[in-house]
Amino acid sequence: MGLILPQAAQAAQMWSKLAQAQGTLTWGVKGDFSLAWVEQPGGDWLYQETVAPPCALLIAGAGHIAQAVAPLALQLDFEVTVFDDRPALANPERFPGGTRFCVGPWERLLAEPMPRQPAFGLIVTRGHQHDALVLRHWVRRPFVFLGMIGSRRKRQMVFDQFIAEDTASRAELERVYCPVGLEIQAVGVSEIAVSIAAQLIQKRAEHLTRKQQGNAPQRA
Question: 26, 29, 40, 80: least buried by Cβ within 10 Å?
Answer without folding.
Answer: 40
